[in-house]
Amino acid sequence: MLLILLRELTCLAASLSPLLFPHQRSYPTRREKSWVHKTTNFRNIVGALQYLMLTRLDLSFPVNKVCQFLHAPTTQHWTVVKRILRYVKGTLGYGLIICKSPSMNISAFSNADWAGSVDDRRSTSGFCVFLGSNLISWSARKQSTVSRSSTKDEYKAMADATAEVIWIQTLLKELRLASSPSATLWCDNLGATYLSANPVFHARTKHIEVDYHFVRERVARKLLHIRFDLFLHIISLLTGYLKCSRCSS
């Protein structure tokens, strides 16, 4: 798929130098008014990149960003697309590796960038789920509402990851594959971690009551264990916060 994409863009790809890091410090907003004249080409390329996301976790966040401007792309958005193509050209050997794992335990990682969108200040939440040592599911999407606190958007990401874990556990059960009844969910927000374990529901968290009870119920039944880790490099790819220094460590 990578080679087909670059073959269709031979003229463009020939002028692009390879790149080893997909993200940039900031992404263009809707305030930019220099529109792209050939919007069809822009949409075709972004559409092709969406197929690459099926096996390329590292493309989720930048492709998600440019997909938000398919209706009216600007020259700045076109620059972002060319950067993604440079990264694809420099990482043709990257892919999703599935191998035999001695464990069937389910573990998940969640994260969110609080008010990361400059246009509407909505957060982008992401999660990835592992079965043993194999990555089997991931998602990066903008939240539907504006979060008033970082704990809220992190907890929303945790709720989405929990729902995905439950679906995978149900699927494994239907396939009659033995797996641990309890899963582990990692996040990098202490407030959200404490909230999942605290049976006292504070008044200041009423705006996330539904997600609270959803996750808290799984924790109380010992079907979900919440763990804290400040350096979640993998899930940071889905929220655009992975810096070059982290990538090399």
Structural summary, described in words:
42% of the residues lie in helices and 14% in strands. With 249 residues, it is of the alpha/beta class. Strands 3-2-1-4-5 form a five-stranded mixed β-sheet. A hairpin with a 2-residue loop joins strand 2 (124-131) and strand 3 (134-142). Helix 6 (150-174) packs across helix 8.
Order of strands across the widest beta sheet? 3-2-1-4-5
Rg over CA atoms, rounded to whole Å, is 19 Å
**What is the percent of helical residues?**
40-55%
Oligomeric category: single chain
| Overall outline | globular
Mean pLDDT: 80
The main pleated sheet reads as:
5 strands, mixed
Distance between the termini: 29 Å
Topology order in helix (H) and strand (E) letters: HHHHHEEEHEHHEHH
Q: How much of the sequence is in beta strands?
A: 5-15%
